Amino acid sequence: MKTDTPGDKNSQTIHRRLPPLSALRCFEAAARLESFTRAGEALHLTHGAISRAVRALEDDLGTRLFERRSHRVFLTDAGRELLHSVANAFDLIDAAARKLRAPAQRAPWVLSCEPTLLMRWLIPRIPAFFAAHPDIPLQLVAGGGPFDFGQGIDLAIRRNDFPWQRGTQAQWLFDEAIGPVCRPEQAARWTRDDSASVQLADRAPRLHSATRPQAWDRWSDLKGQQQAPGSEQVFEHFYFSLQAAVAGLGLAIAPWQLARDDLESGLLVAPCGFIADGSAYYLLSPEAIEPDSPVACLLDWLREQAA
């Protein structure tokens, strides 16, 4: 086993007796340019400094490296052998230095997120993440339901309402909670307040999302409220049903995270509150998340935003 302990029989300090690096630099430049003068110009040294460095190297090695003829120098056989080794060594050092000075940028982490959650919750908050972590490249893409990590997706945010790919690692983000929302001035019209709780008024117009068609029924079962049939409209995504609620078209059944910004701004109110529906959202990855990794940092930030 190699050691760096002076006196040890395996010490590299005993077995590795290298010529001075400065002398090798002068030798390599002179050999490459076939001139001590031009080597001096390249290294910003005098002709005499190059000559002395080469002579010291020849004395150290015990052999001539150059033949001097007029104003030019030519390598001896020993010089050509040394140049080959020195050039290879310098190339290795140069490659390692370039790699360390300008490390390759990792391709962005591709994060797939359900479209309405992406639009109404993640995108409004993500600038703060980029500002706090400019060294973590992240690309957001919209996607819902099943997916394949082998198709260019590194991470995904999904609700646990479908089977996940085998081996998927799931990290909890937040529990789902749903409830009706509407414009503030319409809350009194479409709800009634009895002795126990706020109830939906008979025939209050309901707005549905086609991506979760049973959401109203699920909420009614959880709340124990049965509403007389009224007018209904179905929209392709929660985003559209929430915009319809903002426009005053009716009561939209909405997850709290999707409506929270409109609730905080006063555009919408939730007259009956929200209730957990038993599902939750998770950050999914193909492998376990290493502590202190960029993905672990993203996970912590997502949980903070969901609180």
UniProtKB/TrEMBL annotation:
Keyword Transferase annotated: no
UniProt lineage: Bacteria, Pseudomonadati, Pseudomonadota, Gammaproteobacteria, Pseudomonadales
Superkingdom, taxonomy of origin: Bacteria
A family per Pfam: HTH_1
Protein name, as recorded: LysR family transcriptional regulator
Domain HTH lysR-type: 19-76
PANTHER family in UniProt: HTH-TYPE TRANSCRIPTIONAL REGULATOR, HTH-TYPE TRANSCRIPTIONAL REGULATOR TRPI
UniProt keywords, alphabetically: DNA-binding, Transcription, Transcription regulation
Similarity-based family: Belongs to the LysR transcriptional regulatory family.
Protein source organism: Pseudomonas chlororaphis
GO molecular function list: DNA-binding transcription factor activity; sequence-specific DNA binding
InterPro entries per record: LysR-type_TF_proteobact-type, LysR_HTH_N, LysR_subst-bd, WH-like_DNA-bd_sf, WH_DNA-bd_sf
Keyword flag Transcription regulation: yes
GO biological process, one term: DNA-templated transcription
